[in-house]
Design goal:
The protein is α/β, with parallel strands linked by helices. The protein has 7 helices and 18 strands.
Length: 388
């Protein structure tokens, strides 16, 4: 998130490569399994440009499509330190511990064997169950989101999830390498419980450092994907407008992406299309993604931790709504809120504003409680549990 402050201004030049539409890039591959049957996948590429790169300080780094968001302004470490240690308005944190709807997801197959559901775990962490397949997105089983435990502490809650609260995991998807999305403690706890880790380009190095086996890691560029016929799903990587920075690697040396999951058997005919935004600001890529996939059924959108200082890297609620409209989304679910202070707004302000905006546009608005099971392809629910 705030790692974008460590960037430097650079020059921009676009490198793009094209591939045959949905042509196979590799043969079907088995991987070492934590389950009885090895999972198999086929890697493919879409007929779309890959992530642009620029030469900056004699290094080739990734860049955004938006010319105004090539690189954010240079901000000193002192400014970053002051932001995280200064006093915030009283309402940036909830007045009481956050309630948790369900605290464990083991032994659920008898009730949900042929169903598909999504669970928000707080901030940007999600658990997807799809007809027996278990998928985690940006898991954060930790009480802080930074390289130091006394910075960016989580809100008080009745539960902090752990790897043991879930069945053995088929796929872990990591959208980028910031500390609130790629967490060392969480990934080390999953290294022997997950079969496959799908990450953006040049992100595997962190996972290897955490002890995750090389054969379990797949790096993808924008507009690439993996097809899992045994799991009845296709994973498509799509553009996002963000950045990366982490101790041990410079600004934008690793990529970021959003994801479209196509889930078979959720609807009667065509696949259920689930969009996962990761982090990112608003730009024209949302319209391109919506057009390419013919719309999405549920857009799980970053909506929170916004500030004018990093307007290109995170979205304000009105931009989140516009992005969902560009995606031709049938429903919206906000994430990237409800667990940490990384903006200057009230802790529940992002969902309050987006609620009003979605109502005006008559777009179904799904705001589950942390740990609540939401069955895909059912009516969106907003119980306003956050109204305190």
């Amino acid at each position: 998130m705030k790692n974008l402050f460590l960037w430097r201004i650079g020059t921009f030049s676009l490198f793009a490569s094209l591939a045959l539409y949905l042509s196979a890039c590799t043969t079907t591959q088995p991987i070492t399994s934590t389950k009885d049957t090895p999972m198999r996948y086929t890697k493919f590429s879409h007929h779309k440009p890959k992530a642009p790169q620029i030469l900056h300080n004699k290094k080739l780094i990734f860049a955004n499509l938006n010319p105004e968001a090539r690189l954010p302004p240079d901000v000193s470490f002192g400014d970053v330190w002051e932001y995280y240690t200064s006093k915030k308005p009283y309402d940036t944190k909830p007045p009481k511990p956050l309630p948790i709807a369900r605290e464990t997801f083991t032994n659920l197959e008898s009730n949900f064997k042929n169903k598909s559901f999504l669970v928000w775990l707080g901030h940007s962490s999600l658990y997807l169950y799809h007809k027996g397949a278990n998928i985690l997105i940006d898991p954060l089983f930790n009480t802080y989101a930074s390289p130091m435990p006394f910075i960016n502490r989580a809100f008080k809650a009745h539960k902090t999830f752990s790897a043991q609260d879930f069945p053995l995991i088929d796929i872990v998807i990591l959208t980028h390498s910031h500390y609130d999305h790629l967490d060392k403690k969480s990934l080390k706890s999953l290294k022997d419980r997950a079969q496959l880790f799908v990450v953006p380009l040049n992100t595997a190095q962190f996972l290897r450092d955490f002890g995750i086996s090389e054969e379990k890691i797949i790096e993808l560029d924008w507009w690439e994907g993996l097809e899992f016929k045994d799991l009845a799903l296709r994973l498509n990587t799509t553009p996002a407008q963000h950045n990366t920075n982490r101790l041990g690697i410079g600004a934008n040396e690793s990529l970021w992406f959003s994801v479209v999951l196509e889930l078979e058997g959720v609807k009667d005919s065509e696949p259920f299309k689930l969009f996962l935004s990761g982090d990112g600001g608003y730009y024209t890529h949302f319209k391109e993604i919506g057009a390419h996939f013919g719309g999405v059924d549920l857009a799980v959108m970053e909506n929170g931790q916004y500030n004018k200082a990093w307007k290109y890297s995170h979205s304000f609620p009105q931009e989140t709504l516009q992005a969902a409209k560009d995606l031709r989304a049938k429903a919206i679910q906000p994430i990237h809120w409800g667990r940490f202070v990384a903006g200057s707004h009230a802790w529940n302000e992002p969902v309050e504003i987006l609620n009003k905006l979605a109502q005006k546009e008559n777009i179904p608005y799904n705001v589950p409680q942390i740990g609540e099971i939401y069955l895909l392809n059912t009516k969106a629910q907003n119980t306003r549990w956050y109204d305190f």
